Amino acid sequence: MKRWAALLAAAGLIFAGQQAAPAAPQPQFPDVKTRAKGIIPPGGVLSSKTGGNTVDAELRETRPRADGRYHYDSPKLIQRLKALNVNTYLFGIWESPTDWDDLRSEFAPLARAAGIDIWLDLVPPSECQADRPEGPYLEGYCSRPFKLDFVAWARNIATLSLQYPNVKAWQIDDFLIAQNSRLFTAQYLAQIKATQDAINPNLGFLTTMYLGDYTDEHLDRIAPYIDGVLLPYLGGGQSTTDPRYVTAQLDQLLAKLNPRRLDLILLLYTDRFLDAALPPSPEYVAEALAQAMPYAADGRIGGIVAYGAPVNHDRRPTVASNNLAQTGDGRLSFAQGNYVTAAAGGFSEAYQQITVDPAAPSHSLRFATYDQVSRTPGKSQKLFKEVLIDDRVVWRSDIADEFGFTWAPASVDLSTALRGKTTAKLGLRLSVQGPANFPFDVGFDSLVPTGFTIGNHGFEDVNPATRGWRFTQQSPTVYGAIEKITPQVAKDVYDVIAAAFGGRPRPAVPTTPSGPIPGDLPRTGTSYQPGGPGTIRNSAMYGKGRLSLYVPERTPTVAGTCVWAEQRMAVDPNAPRYEISWWDYDTLSADLAGYHMKQVTIVTSKGKKLLSNLDAAEAPKLWMNGQGLWGAIDITQFARGESSVLLQFALCENQGVGDYLVDVGYDEIEAVGLTVTNGGFEQGATGWTIVSPHPGMKAQVLTAS
């Protein structure tokens, strides 16, 4: 009846004296260009995006095709996107030269049939490694085939959008970073816009801008030529675990963008970000989406992109070395990412009210702490791990102690602090005593109380209603949380996104009680040794094995010395091309640049060629694929015509050192056109020759128990 009354009123057919039923309030959409072009669906864009350098966000086929390339697995990707409840997919054209053709010939028609819109994602000069005169082996990811000719991209994307109307928009990453701003001048942006508008004036054109980029100068320069921006949300600074600022940042930027008729799309990291200390947890993703979804639903923002949504969760399990807990799967973490500074006076604290037995003969607390900070002078006297009773410090330790990268046991006598009490407030804190401009991750775990009880003493319960711990966050950059890494974390994140995008309640967070703390944990701290006491239980990427190339603490080395593992690999003479791919990892402090180099070398009948030479101090403390940010290496020019080649994976000393450890890991070594034996090191050293000629350096295969 209300529907008919509304129609009659609209036609002027409500008679005098009759009252039409009040119309439901309609969302007041902002007057922005994307809405005028019709590229934002009702409820906003709900999108997934494959992330650069993520590990499970991209679905490619498991075997290379006849061209020797791994193509998008478009049918399975569509299936996963439908189950994720997206209405749009931000299709990345970056990792393979076949991405553009995969989009045109396979993904676009399947997405159209499935009712999924497409936005294209291209990279700027800072993320394009192409046209190297030395040869293809030094090339890497880039948006191909048109690379950095964005006028050509505008022409071809606009033409494709006429063939497939579900191609709604495209975006270029990071206009304003580094050398990119020199290319994207007002004149060049005007040329891009004129080119696409001449073909399809309703095609959207956007860019990615980080929080600090939204100055009036920047916005006034680019606003005439773009339709909107994507905001990568990073908490108070380089964090993908801190949801405190979602709504505040959206409100802040809407006030700047709406007057310029620019739409705002929230890009939420749901897989790792290279400059963050920790990967996003299911609990973080759920909370951030709960804050952002109302903004998309009522039209205040244009939508949400789940960056790195783990659509490949069945093929790529959780990275094993992400689990840093001493026991079980959970731990308390205080972390800060790269390129931010924790200001003196700030802190982050987890606390709970404990029940004290006043008749107990003694009161004490045993626990373990962990940090990824090596013992270097520039990091001492800045950050302190603390235990507090009723807000008074009863134990503290500098994070730049002897025991970086290991769980160090500690204990504190609480007899005086708890004397005569039946309850008390127990706090675990990271305190900032001096400006700390470096990344860190500090952990507490395995709490064993005597004379009192602690809830969730092993940090296995992450349910906010039952976890026992509350948090005080008194720093915008340091964030405390319970981090729990289980084998199904990627699937849990996927399910959280699917529920939010599908309008369903977030999945229930399981309540997992902490079990007894094992009695055989180390009682004294030891310096780091790969696989030794106090280290994390599994440092492999996947499975249980990895290659470890290691220099211990306080061990002198000589410039030019190396340790390595090598394997002779048979060459398929009929392969269309040849490539080698690997993942590497290191635990070196970033302030020791120029000393330790990660090197990959190929030896053929024609000689020896260094394929990759990366400073271990410059890479993130994460598993990275191939030569830094550029993926697998094309070795066709070296392998063609050979019956076999020798590949060496090495740690080499660029300068001699007398102190400070480094442990470089290699794992998941794969190839196209070559036969690799035991590339995941799951059969120990089978297939590999381990070469460790220098007494101060060690090469070995580690296998978790």
TrEMBL record:
Signal sequence region: 1-20
Annotated region (Disordered), positions in chain: 505-534
Keywords: Signal
Compositional bias annotation for Pro residues: 507-516
Keyword Signal: yes
Keyword check for Coiled coil: no
Record InterPro entries: GH (IPR017853)
Protein name: Glycoside hydrolase family 42 N-terminal domain-containing protein
Organism: Kribbella sandramycini
Taxonomic lineage of the native organism: Bacteria, Bacillati, Actinomycetota, Actinomycetes, Propionibacteriales
